[in-house]
# Entry
Amino acid sequence: MSAHTSTRVRPEATGVDTRLPWWALALPAVAFVALLMLMTGPGEAPAAVGGPGAGGFLERIQQTLSL
# Structure
C-alpha cells in the first residue's frame, strides 16, 4: 500500500513579530561597556588626571597582539 502525500503548498505565516525587545540590545551593550571600563580604568572613583583611558586600552591591545 502506498501512502498519500499532500502536494498542497502551505501559505506563509503572516503577522509574525520578528522585532527584538529593547533589553536584547541593551544588555550586551551595557556588559561590553562595563568590561571595557574594568579593563582600562584604574578602579578608583575620582577621575585621575592623565589616566590611561583610551590610550591604555590601545596599549593593551598592542601588547596582546605583539605576543
